[in-house]
Design goal:
The protein has 429 residues and is α/β, with parallel strands linked by helices. The chain has two domains: 148 residues, Alpha-Beta Complex (Aspartate Aminotransferase, domain 1); 242 residues, Aspartate Aminotransferase, domain 2, CATH 3.40.640.10. Helix content is 43%, strand content 17%. Helix 4 runs antiparallel to helix 13 and helix 14 runs parallel beside helix 16. The radius of gyration is 24 Å and the shape is globular. The protein binds pyridoxal-5'-phosphate. Its cofactor is pyridoxal 5'-phosphate.
Amino acid sequence: MTGNEQNPSKWLAAEKKYDSGVYNKHDVVMVRGQGATVWDENGRSYIDCVVGYGVATLGHSHPDVVKAVQEQAGKLMVMPQTVPNDKRAEFLQELVGVLPQGLDRVFLCNSGTEAMEAAKKFAITATGRSRFVSMKRGFSGRSLGALSFTWEPKYREPFGDAVDNKSVDFVTYGNLDELRAAVTEQTAAVIMEPVQGEGGVRPASAEFIQEARRITREKGALLILDEIQTGFCRTGKMFACEHFGVIPDGMTLAKAIAGGTPTAAFAMMSEVADRMPAGGHGTTFGGNPLSMAAGVASLRAMKREGLAEQAREKGAYMMDKLRAIQSPKIREVRGLGLMIGVELKEKSAPYIHAMEHDEGVLCLAATPLVVRFLPPAVISKEQIDQVVAAFERVLNNVNPREERQAELRAQQSEMGQQQVSQGESVQTE
Ligand SMILES: Cc1ncc(COP(=O)(O)O)c(C=O)c1O
């Protein structure tokens, strides 16, 4: 039991009452974070291997980011992108400095899905084409434009024809023949994640991603890599495409880009940017000075602290430890850097719940069978040891089938009790 179940919090009640209802809320209220640790309102600590779906790769409340935000908040928070701003210029310079060569034009926005929207529009104006190739099991976000690239039917079907799924061909991630057949002279862009995150933590093969580069060039289409989850050191390089020696024409960026502030970008080659008419796209909050200040501090800290090397080394350490777990429930441990998935032979949800509830470790699902770990790169090896030990205990102790049967037995006996007492009351009246 968490403290909240014993003593329901007013914050938990308020959030559950007023939220739109689209989220499956946990029974816990988080109030503070530092590095790889977060604390709930009752003071219980958790090792965070979710970090806001992969946002806080630098750790929660990194001191440089906190200082930059504090200073900028007292100076200037709002300036639209039509009016140049010192922090925005500094951020753009820093960002282009770490991006693969040639990606030196940037559209700034606020979330991953907006970066995908931008990518879609820039690809259409750059090529004069409007067909796309995306990947089965791919996830690109949930706005209607981005949703057209997202494969999972449950995210698309509730919105029927409002999601444009006629102009997108989905190919099996890794299938070279399907890829070659799908990319034609009508294709504006091929969209893919270098490691599928939501789709089960699946790294692309070098052959597949390199063939995507080759065939898009041959057909005059763009290659757009979705590095929203993989970017900014998560996979052990600043960007995952560096593992494959591939430079795309455009790259969508978000999550860890700016120290936890809601920031995103579509970075592209000049030839792609130059074809968008002035005023053809825009956003109010994109490139706001507050996020830009956080972004500058975050990018500098990533470089100074060797965050990519940390993610590479700790990722290998954690993956080795997970692979050493002897459990018949594990089908496969896979990933790249600190983007790690453990595919089980059964549903992952009860194990993820037990990790949080019983062990104080936050992790998340990626498809119903996969437990996904996205710890910050500043996590210590001791914390990794704790996470792996907790996971092993949970695999040993949780038995969803037995628990479900016990639940059913309890329900049946409760119903039996009710029938007996109803029967008794009838008799006694
Ligand atoms: C690969 C990928 N693309 C796009 C998105 C959408 O980003 P956002 O949730 O910021 O809109 C996500 C979010 O998880 C993602 O992992």
